[in-house]
Amino acid sequence: MAAQPSFPRGGTWFDSLRKSFVNVPVDSANGDAISTSDFLDAAESLTTLFDLLGSVAFKPVKNDMLGNVKKVRDRQLASPGDSSNLQSLVLNELKTKQHTATEGLLWLTRGLDFTAQALRHNTSNTSDELSTSFRAAYTSTLKPHHSFLVKPVFSAAMSATPYKKDFYAKLGAESDQAKVKEELGRWLACLEKQVGVLNQFLARKECKW
Known about the structure:
By secondary structure, the chain is mostly helical.
């Protein structure tokens, strides 16, 4: 059964988030260092979006993302002094010849990229249904890295998306759709920026194991 909106009257789904990507500090004076705690809280908050999609097919997608959040957070808890930002966390973990959190962050970033691309495609192509947007995003982000056993699980989720109008109604009331569009645009731009920073960082030679 589809999840019901849990935001107050006149509010939107974005008001229900424990942490928004809009509020994640990115230190441009320090190589675009991204606050670890804030980023993980924002990523965890994002996973409630999959509840709004209203199908059990999205449970593996959500669980996969939450599992990767946990891998990064476990490293942060184990070595807090070296983990104030994601870049520092990765470089310091790799110095120990371990890569559990680094690999978790890589997969988390791919999952966030998938979500961002799906929503960007859908907001930019107003006549497309969600299934079209999510399939396009999956093809360009996660699919190239998934095994033949995993691909059918995620493909099933892409086909289980609700109608576009029903999904956006869960982000905010019909009378508040202008507000939904504005808040989605701001949130999505911040998510895309942080994903871009991490994609560039994780592609660096020193981030390989």
